[in-house]
Amino acid sequence: MPTSEDFKTELYRMMNEALFEGKATAEINAGDLHRRVGGYPGPNHRMPTCCVVMLAAFAPDAGDVILEQPPSGEGADLTIKYVLPKLQPPS
Q1: Which tens digits make up the pLDDT trace of 36-59?
Q2: Does residue 47 contact residue 55 with C-beta atoms inside 8 Å?
């Protein structure tokens, strides 16, 4: 069963993938994140934990935006656009 640390690791892996593709933002959906970690869909899914991890990384002051959020606040439709840090060219 996935842990919050599993979700956090994969969330940052997805952000890094977007960063190294040269993107300025990463739109991450909870359903997609949970599928990558495993156990979703399924009877023992950990969607609430997945969403808590995504929301903990949400930084509106940095420009992050919630694009979609279920009425309950937690669900597979939760989608957040995270602003990625800029890469510095090698010196």
Answers
A1: 999 998 888 999 999 999 999 999
A2: no
- Report pTM: 0.90
Residue 70 near residue 77 (C-beta atoms within 8 A): yes
Query: How far is the C-alpha of 74 from the C-alpha of 78, rounded, in Å?
Result: 7
User: Is 17:37 a contact under the CB 8 Å cutoff?
Assistant: no
Give the C-alpha separation, 52 to 5, whole Å: 11
**Cβ neighbours of residue 12 closer than 8 Å, sequence gap 6 or more:** 57
Cα 35 to Cα 6, 29, 56, 73, 85, distances in angstroms: 12, 10, 19, 19, 25
Q: How far apart are CA 64 and CA 17, in angstroms?
A: 17
Distances (CA, A) of 29 to 60, 69, 87, 89, 90: 17, 10, 24, 30, 32
